[in-house]
C-alpha cells in the first residue's frame, strides 16, 4: 500500500465523517452497501496525493528558478 499523504484539516474531518457514517451503516447490518462512502474516502485520499505531488513539483520548480537566478547573477558579477 502506498504511503498516505499529509491531510489538511478539512480532509481529516471529511474522512472522519465518512468513517463515522460507515460505522453507523455497519451497525445496521453486514449486508449494507458501503461502496459509495468508500469511494468518497478514496477520492479524498487521491486528491490529497495529487495536491502533495503538485506542491512538490512547485517547490522543485522554485528551487530550479532560484538556482538559475543565482547562476545568472554570478555570471554577470564575473563579467565586470
Biggest β-sheet strands, sense, barrel? none
Question: Helicity level, as a percent range?
Answer: over 70%
Cα Rg: 22 Å
Structure classification? mainly alpha
- How far is the first residue's CA from the last residue's CA? 56 Å
In DSSP terms (H or I, runs of 4 or more residues), the helix count works out at: 2
Low-confidence stretches: none
Task: Sum up the overall morphology in one term.
Answer: rod-shaped
Strand content: under 5%
Tally the beta strands: 0
Q: How would you state the average pLDDT, rounded?
A: 89
The protein's oligomeric status is single chain
Structure overview:
- There is one protein chain.
- This protein is an all-alpha fold.
- It has helices spanning 9-28, 35-79.
- Helix 1 (9-28) packs antiparallel against helix 2 (35-79).
- The longest helix is centred in the C-terminal third of the chain and has 45 residues, at 35-79.
- The mean pLDDT is 89.
Can you give keywords for this protein?
80 residues
In summary, what is this structure?
By secondary structure, the protein is an all-alpha fold. The protein has helices at residues 9-28, 35-79. It is rod-shaped.
Amino acid at each position: 500500500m502506498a504511503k498516505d499523504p499529509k491531510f489538511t484539516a478539512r480532509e481529516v474531518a471529511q474522512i472522519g465523517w465518512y468513517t463515522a457514517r460507515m460505522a453507523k451503516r455497519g451497525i445496521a447490518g453486514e449486508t449494507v452497501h458501503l461502496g459509495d462512502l468508500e469511494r468518497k474516502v478514496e477520492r479524498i485520499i487521491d486528491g490529497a496525493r495529487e495536491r502533495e505531488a503538485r506542491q512538490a513539483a512547485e517547490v522543485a520548480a522554485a528551487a530550479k528558478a532560484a538556482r538559475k537566478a543565482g547562476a545568472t547573477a554570478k555570471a554577470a558579477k564575473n563579467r565586470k
